[in-house]
Each structure stands twice: as C-alpha cells, then as structure tokens.
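Let us practice reading a record.
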Amino acid sequence: MFSGMLYIFLPLIIGYLITVKKPAVLAFINTQTSRLVLVILTLMGLSLAGLDNIGQNLNQIITYTLVFFLVISGCNLLALPLLDRLMPTETEHGHQTLPLRDMVMESMKLIFVVAGGLIVGLATGIELGWVDQASEIILLLLLFLIGIQLRNSGMTLKQILLNKKGIIIALTIIATSLPGGLIAAWVLDLPYNQGLAMASGFGWYSLAGILIGDSLGPVMGGVAFLNELLRELVALSLIPMMISRYPSTAIGYAGATAMDFTLPVIQNCGGIRCVPIAIVSGFILSLLVPVLMLFFLSL
C-alpha cells in the first residue's frame, strides 16, 4: 500500500524539482496537461466497456448502487459547503468567470469524452487489456507535469504537503460518508458493517470493487465499483461548475481521486492553488480506503 503511494507521488516530486523560467515552456506544459486529461477520460470509458459480470443481477446492482450513491453523496454535500463558508479558498483559473451555460458545457464535454470511450469499446469489441496500463502511464505523466507547475507557481513545499484545508476536507468526507453508509444499509436491510465498508471507498472504485467483491461476492463488488465510479463521474461534472464558488465542496466530493484522476481537472478549473488542498485531501482518503474497508469487512 505504502509503495503504491510512493509510486503515485514520485512523478510529482520529480516534477517539483524542475525549474522552468521560459513562459512559452510553461504555456506548452499547461496545454499538454489539458489534452492529457481528455485522453485519460477516454481510457476510463474504454475500461468501462471491458467490465465483467455486470450483466448478472443487474437490477439488484443498480438499486443498491443508487441507494448508496444518493445517501452518501447527500451526506457529503450537506457538510462540504459549510467549509467553503468557514474557510474560503481563492481560485485562480479563468473558468470562474464563465457564464453558467459555458460551465455546464465544459462539464458535459468531460462526460461525453468518457461516454465516447465507452461507446467505442462496446461497438468495436477491441481487446482492452492494455487500457489500465496506458491509463497508469498517462496518469504518471500528468502528475509529473503538475509537479512542474507546482514548482513554478511560487508555493513552498510546506504549503503543498502540510495543508490544513486539505486535512479538514478529508476528515469531513470521512465523518459524513460513514453515517451515510449506515443509513443506506438500514434502507437496504444490509448488515451495518457492510454499509460502513461500502462508505469507505471514497471514490477509489478499482480497489473498492476488488476488496468488497473478495469479501461479499461479485454483486456487492459490482455495487462498490459502480458506486465509486459514479462518484468520480459526477465529480468530473461538478468540478468545473462549482469550484470557483465552492472549491472545498468540489475538491472534497472528488474524494480519493482528488490526488490523481480528478487532480488535473481541479488544477485546470480551479487554478494551481487548489492543487495542494486536493493532494493532501486525496492522499489521506486514499491511505484510509484499504484500512477502513478491511476493518469494517472483518467485523
């Protein structure tokens, strides 16, 4: 687990060591970061097309997924806006001046990219075993470029690694997700430890699906996977619309993905000053996913 965290942070660290003085080079890096975001979202859609066993017990999977998603998300979104009032965060990106229609279109563009990848994967029937490795490589490149942007943003390493807002956001997500899992378990008449385990995925859909599936079977594994994946997809649509006015809400709702898959979108839409908050929040949540989930599954 810790080696995996180091693996994720290494490109950021390497990128942070690089100083770029030419504005043209920084502009090029910014452009490529935006383009790579679209590439990795396309690969996400392709990975959905290769999902196995989702056709079995589809009605139960959909019902459980919607209940867990709506209840946990509702609990999160009741608390996160309070952080934006108590701890305002300045955003720097030009998206904050866009009219609502343009912000909605920016969000829908990201969803359409994912949907396009899904349609291509289903329509062509191509072999998709390479998608996960390609996504990982592109993600590492994105993190490397973001590290360069951080180094040249004028922020100190202390601001990046020890961010009070990021810690509070992560604790808020934990404190609101677990009660949401209990409520969803009560609605679905499931054991409460299963509800707590389902609420501990924090957007890390791949790991959540594996851990839950190994312990509770493929149906619940599919529910965990889709629940966290749906969280990530909704986060992708919320970030461009909300981050200018509610940055803590946008970052917090991204959950564990704020340190990796949604981090480039957070940076693009909210500016480089949102990145340390997202990294710290996402890191804490990512670290606790296997710890909390395995603990609750063992009860």
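A brief commentary: The radius of gyration is 19 Å.
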